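When time allows, look over one protein, given below as sequence and tokens. The question is which stretches look regular and which look disordered:
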Amino acid sequence: MGVRNLLKYWLPALIWLGVIFLGSSDLMSAEHTSRFLIPLLRWLKPEITADAIAKVQFFVRKLAHLTEYAILATLLWRAVYRGTNLKTKMSIVFVTASVVSILVAASDEFHQSRASAADQPSIANPLIGPDWARTSDPALIKRML
């Protein structure tokens, strides 16, 4: 595997991992993304309730998480399948890329929970992630309005 293959196939996956890490910081927290989403929702539907905003924000954030990890899995699959000399079944490459993406997602959720543990309630559910704790509170949404 030459430097050219490394750059062509593995660098995009590594850059995307950096984007994911940056996104799990306070920069992309619910409080910061609500600056864009709440005004948009208020413009689309002025009478929207704080509870509805919380639900939409939760859905949008989870959809974003799903998308970012699908992109990671695709980049990892591409890097392993095309960027190495391994001659293996495509299904094994797919499972490997998926498992690595799931492990990165779990570590990202852990990072988010540690980075914002001081300002969120204690909710331990790795399936929905720690940002649910911030986006599900209608009182918090009302304070942001």
Remarks:
- Confidence is low (pLDDT under 50) at residues 117-145.
